[in-house]
């Protein structure tokens, strides 16, 4: 063999070793990254759901409540963006409009009685902005009197009110100026908050500034199936910034007028798990969905900067000192888990699927373990007290709701047992209601509503809620 040939063979052997080493290194890195994801996001399954899922350690004064929103239950709301949206054919399933909804506006006393019958000691409801400010700067005295009377009735019944200021609906006069993207949205919203606390603040301690800002941005500006019905990621980023600014200024207005108030926002949190736990690209897709959807709002609060970093969206990183101290608790709305699969053909390169568990009427996986997983992550990430501001299931027969309630209360109890400061649980919803673009078909109520007669009938979920509250009341308090 010639020296040239020997040198060539030596070079080829060295090259093969380098290639094999590189492949081995990449495989090792792949396995390490996948293992790190799996360890930091372990799958969780409860082996059994106790019949009486209450542990010691719930704080005295724990809030056991139900939740509603004004447009979904009141009826007669005609001057907001949703009323306008409902009038466009094809926007609402079945062509429904909110109409009378559950006629709560005329049945407050009856519905406060339902809360008392449940054994609830708290109620989360929203003020319809377009009722109290039908024109810019013009306050409707009768509408404010109505809400003041509702708060007074709750207080007399021993029910703690939690008032939500923005639960998706905007006055049409504000929509015509740009809605969430209007230059003065945050200032207008803060003025509304200041007026609300001036009129109701003596009897309201808990305030929720905005409900599910991540959902309102996504549904209204990304997929465009809610008002304003656009698909524009630049506007989506502006809307998100408007909601964060609005929260900050509203929180400061509330605290200035009522220093003892407890203020927060309610965010919709989803468990994002990979379809294939061994496939790194599924893990990366799940992480990006989680980071972009779940955490942007409260990360902004924590950093005192309007912060949004989602692939394909204009990035935001705008300091805002008013965000500091603007949240006393994190409101968690939990309904679902989604499985994430990397797919080059899917928008954003990820496809969202339902998990293997039982499904609700709307095809959402029932995964109570996800509530415990998210409560752990919220506490680790923000170190703030937590209130479960919404949790519920679409269940027209009522057969799913008792087990659903028991399983999610068990998840909550497990979190409290681990030292996580969860201060309340609000079931969605007190009543069947208008479920936005889904119309009246999904039924979430502890009380079933006959929309023809407006009769309320307690379902199996109401019975189970009452039982769980009674068990909790009998449990020893250790905190």
Counting helices, strands and paired strands, the structural category is alpha/beta
Instruction: Using the 3D structure, state the CATH architecture of the largest domain.
Output: Alpha-Beta Barrel
Could you tell me the CATH topology label of the largest domain: TIM Barrel
Q: Into which percentage range does the β-strand content fall?
A: 15-25%
- Unreliable sequence segments: none
SSE string, helix = H, strand = E?
HEHHHEHHEHHEHHEHHEEEEHEHEEEH
Order of strands side by side in the largest beta sheet?
Answer: 1-2-3-4-5-8-10-11
Rg, Cα atoms, Å: 25 Å
Secondary structure blueprint with pairings:
Blueprint: H1 3-40, E1 63-67, H2 70-73, H3 81-86, H4 108-118, E2 122-126, H5 129-132, H6 141-156, E3 160-166, H7 172-175, H8 185-200, E4 206-211, H9 213-222, H10 233-257, E5 262-274, H11 280-294, H12 296-303, E6 305-308, E7 316-319, E8 329-342, E9 350-353, H13 369-382, E10 386-391, H14 401-417, E11 422-428, E12 447-449, E13 456-458, H15 460-474
Parallel strand pairs: 1-2, 1-11, 2-3, 3-4, 4-5, 5-8, 8-10, 10-11
Antiparallel strand pairs: 6-7, 8-9, 12-13
Helix pairs in contact: 8-10, 9-10, 13-14, 14-15
Question: Can you tell me about this structure?
Answer:
Strand 10, helix 14 and strand 11 form a beta-alpha-beta unit. The protein contains 15 helices and 13 strands. The strands form three sheets. It has an eight-stranded parallel barrel with strand order 1-2-3-4-5-8-10-11, surrounded by seven helices. Strands 6-7 form a two-stranded antiparallel sheet. The chain is α/β, with parallel strands linked by helices and 479 residues long. The chain has two domains: 40 residues; 434 residues, Glycosidases (TIM Barrel), CATH 3.20.20.80. Helix 9 runs antiparallel to helix 10.
